[in-house]
Amino acid sequence: MSRIKILLFVFALAQVPLASAKVTYAVGTCEPKLTSFTTISAALAATPAPNVIEVCPGTYNEQVVITIPVTLEGVSNGTSTGATIALPPGGLYIDADDDLGDQLAVQVLVYSSSGVNLTNLTVDGTGNNAYGAPIVGVFYKNSSGTINHLNLLNQWDNAIGSAIWLEGGSSNPSVTVENSTMLGFQNIGIRAETNSTTSELIATIRGNSLNGTYATCECEGAQYGIDFGPGATATVSANFVTDTFYGIYAASTGTVSKNILVTTGFAIDVETDDASVTSNTIYDALGNGSIGIFAHSAVSPITGNSIVAQATGIEFDCVAGSNVHSNTIVNETKGLNDVPTAAVTTNTFYGVSAIRNVGGC
Question: Pick the residue with more confidence: 134 or 229?
Fold first, then answer.
């Protein structure tokens, strides 16, 4: 090969960009081969920016803000209790606001970033002093990513508290929340919405367990397990929701399927014409006169659900009609209530005192 050809070949190689190296840091001392930091915030601020942060078992008293694409994952180490993000020594400060202008005190804030993944972590709000602003365990604001195997505990204050809050925006982010546990939230377990008339958020919520302790919380207002509202398109499936006033509150485009709900108020409340509710199982374990499905929609399909021991199986509210069918309703005081006289609906009933009540329609 001539000298000129060799030089041209070397020059061509120089123009090919090398793949970026993966940067992994540790927080704590369980990964001695990695560059390590004592706090999660310090690892996030390091240069070069990390792709992965492995958080060793322990308790990290800090308020975390994430603005870069990163995977933040707890590391298992023998019989340890895992990695917990708890309150900083001075308590939480207000560090975010939603699109409606509400100020929030967030434990883990993901802000305007893509590809932020949180896994194998506990976020504990016990003892917070976020008075004057609602506490939020994890808040994704106009950001995409996955929340997987998180434990969120005691997001509670004297106003309202939410475990997970998803808010879309101009980037139309997609967020998945899966295989996670929420216990002791005061107001909402998982919230997904945006201040928009069109969808700016895709939320996939599946395989989670939520317990709001509504029966004993003496909450000032209603409590929601999963709430998806305006500006969101949601897929809500295979979740277990117990002891909340509203189990699943559907107020925008979405599907609600194969969930199990044990609640004290309305298990599923459909407030939109753009949601389908299929193949869910609903129980009223406390026997306090709750409603299985509140069907405030003339067109949203409500089919294939099993509803056991409610005061009312399905409340039509004089609005729903033939879109409600093929459900199984067991041991109810009222199977169907406030049913429009023109509605043609076929369901299966066992041990129901009043199968179809026209009520005030």
Answer: 229
Distances from the Cα of 304 to the Cα of 161, 318, 327, angstroms: 33, 21, 5
The pLDDT of residue 220 is 57
C-beta of residue 232 within 8 angstroms of C-beta of residue 256: no
Is residue 295 included in any domain, yes or no? no
Peptide bond into 32 cis (omega under 30): no
**What is the number of residues in the chain?**
361
What is the CA 171 to chain-centroid distance, rounded?
A: 19
User: What is the pLDDT averaged over residues 16-43?
Assistant: 87
Q: Mind listing the pLDDT tens digit for each residue in 178-192? A: 999 999 898 899 999
**pLDDT tens-digit profile of 312-329?**
999 999 999 999 999 999
Q: Please give the residue range of the domain that contains residue 148.
A: 57-264
The domain total for the chain is 1
What b/e readout covers 305-344, taking b as 16+ CB neighbours within 10 angstroms? bbbbbbbbbbbbbbbbbebbeebebbbbebbbbbbbeebe
* 277 belongs to a structural domain: no
- Residue 72 inside a domain? The answer is yes
Beta-bridged to residue 148, according to DSSP, are 119, 178
- Between the alpha carbon of residue 351 and those of residues 222, 312, 318, 328, 335, the distances in Å are 30, 13, 24, 11, 9
Closest CA to 167 of 192, 136, 184, 145: 192
If one counts every other C-beta atom within 10 angstroms of the C-beta of residue 33, the result is 7
Arithmetic mean of pLDDT, 64-74 = 97
Structure tokens at 10: 């070397």
Distance from C-alpha of 196 to C-alpha of 355, rounded to nearest angstrom: 40
DSSP summary character for residue 357 = E
Would 51 be classed as within a structural domain? no
Residue with tokens 């309305």: 266
Q: How far is CA 165 from CA 109, 151, 193, in A?
A: 10, 14, 8
Which amino acid would we find at residue 36? S
- CATH number, domain of 197, equals 2.160.20
Q: Say how far residue 104 (Cα) sits from the centre of its chain.
A: 17
Q: What is the pTM of this model?
A: 0.91
